[in-house]
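Feature request, filed as a ticket because there's no other form

It would be nice if the structure record came with a short human-readable summary line next to the C-alpha cells. Right now we just get the raw output. Example of a typical job, pasted below so the devs can see what we mean:
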Amino acid sequence: METATKNLENDHDSILKLIDVMEIMTGSTDFEIDDLEEVVDIIKNFADGMHHAKEETLLFPLMAERGFSMQQGPIAVMLSDHTQGRDYVRKITESIQFLKEGDLSSLNLIYKNMLGYGELLRNHIQKENNVLFRMADNAFSQNDQEALLIKFKNIENHGLINHNDFVERIKKLVQAYNLS
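Raw output as currently delivered:
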C-alpha cells in the first residue's frame, strides 16, 4: 500500500535521477542550453513546485499538528534546505541568461551551482528518507497517511503538466545522457 511518505520517496527517486543527469552535464564543455533550461524547469516545477509544495503545505503542517516544531529540529532544517536549493536554482537561471547573451564564463557558474544543488539535495533526501519520513510514519495514523496521499495526488494532477509528465521528462534526460 502506498503511503504519503512513500509517495514523497518516489519523487526523491526521480529527483536523484535528475541530479545524476546534472552531474554528467557538469563534466562536459559540450552543452545544450535547451537541456540546461529543461533541468531548471523540472527543478522549479517538479522538485520545488510540486514535491516541495507537498511537503511545505501538507506534510510539515500535519507533522506540526502532531507535535513537531516548524521552528527547530528536522522540519526547520528541511525548510532551510529548500531555501538554499531555491538560491542555487536562481543562480543557475541567472547564469543561463548570461550564457545565452554570449558570456561563456557563465557556464562555470552554472556547473558550480548545479553541483552545489545536487550535493545539497542528495544530503537532504537522505535526511528526509531516513529520519524525517520515519518520524512522520510513527506519528501519523493510517487515516492521516490516506488523507495526505489524496491531497498529494490532487497536487500532482493539478495544472497543465502532471506528475507523470515530469517523470517522463526526467527519463528522457536520463536516456539522452546515457544513464539508463
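Something like this underneath would help us a lot:
The chain has a mean pLDDT of 95.
The chain has six helices and no strands.
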